[in-house]
Amino acid sequence: MNILASSLPAHPGFAQNLQYQLTGVLVVFFTLGTLAVIVWLLGRVFVRAETGGTKPVTQPAVKTEDEIPGPVLAAISAAVAVALEGRHFVIYDVAAAGSPSRWSTEGRRAIYRSHKLR
Hints:
By secondary structure, the protein is mostly helical. It has four helices and no strands.
């Protein structure tokens, strides 16, 4: 640290100040870029390790009375394929718009559970 301090002049000029600041900014950007690349590579390794070994096992479809017709399911899957532009996707569940959502039911249940009766 003393070597760096002794190499700086007592009264640096404009060019020396600018060079010092640009060097500092470049060091910071290089360090942040290196960290970003390391994090990105680790993410790729974890995703590959997570999906590389096994494929998810899907349950066979269960027939119900209010089943959505086949042409409607085909239209939905075609719309998803177009929206995702050829990326891999899996449709696990399709429900009619009027049916209650499992998420909203669980949310209501959590809210009611948090209320204390007097």
